[in-house]
Hints:
The structure holds two protein chains of two kinds. Helix content of chain A is 79%, strand content 0%. Chain A is mainly alpha-helical. Chain A has one domain. Chain A is elongated and about 75 Å long. The longest helix of chain B is centred in the last third of the chain and has 21 residues.
Amino acid sequence: MDSQNPSLDTLRDIKRIMERSSRFISLSGLSGLSAGICALVGAYIAHSWINGEMARSNGTYQPIHEMKWRLILLALAVLVAALGVSFYFTWNKAKKNNLPIWDHTSKKLLINLLIPLAAGGFFVIGLLAQNEWRFVAPSCLVFYGLALVNASKFTLTDIRYLGLMEIVLGLINLYYPEYSLYFWAVGFGILHIVYGLIMWWKYDKVKTDS
Amino acid sequence: MKNPIGNLNKIFDSRIRMGVMSVLLVNDEVNFNDLKQLLELTDGNLASHLTNLEENGYIKVHKGFIGRKTNTTYSITKSGEKAFAEHIEALENMIKNVK
């Protein structure tokens, strides 16, 4: 791309510097993909636990009440695993492109992601304290979606659409709480995998080819 | 005919000053170290260009402290925004004329 036109090169430089200085662009598609796989594995384990208990009690068993703590621990484990692998791939991408992982763009991204996410976390803890477990999954989806929309101004804009889809999914889930696990699996699993593949295709693959 | 490069701002000829203006146009306030890191420069190199931009009234300098360490931040001025926008427009016009 060695163009003959120095003005065009200068404009390209300006655009590149503006993008690099205001957005964290090292977010890797593989991060989304691997987080999605973690979520699906977690949902599968939860599903088999619930099914196992249901079978043992001939369908009369109300699973969530007594398995609540086990399921919460599982959800936390999935969260830690998903954060771990997505951090790894993003860190890897930043290193490959010789960009810093911790600069003022990643700080801004993290703060704007964490505000709605922390609010959601406390909201869900409140729901559990009130023994209102039915709305845990919809709340997780809605708050996570809001966090992504909020953070999209400071990283690749595509996560805005992922956020909007999470919000819609969470709102629909409110009316079908009995299918929460499936909504959860779609929102945190399938959507992440699809988004991750699209991002990888759009940003990461091109760079490794050229 | 008008001089085609007449609207280009000499001050932004330097890639470093052009880079500083690009960063400050999209960020409210950026400190010295972040600028240095973003533009991959050394202290002395960046400082002289920042002084130049400040003397021309294109950027503002705020000296502050974080604990005991000095934290100098920079932001773009209204006239800096205007001058840089005109410079970009001049570059765009040159490209149009080539095509």
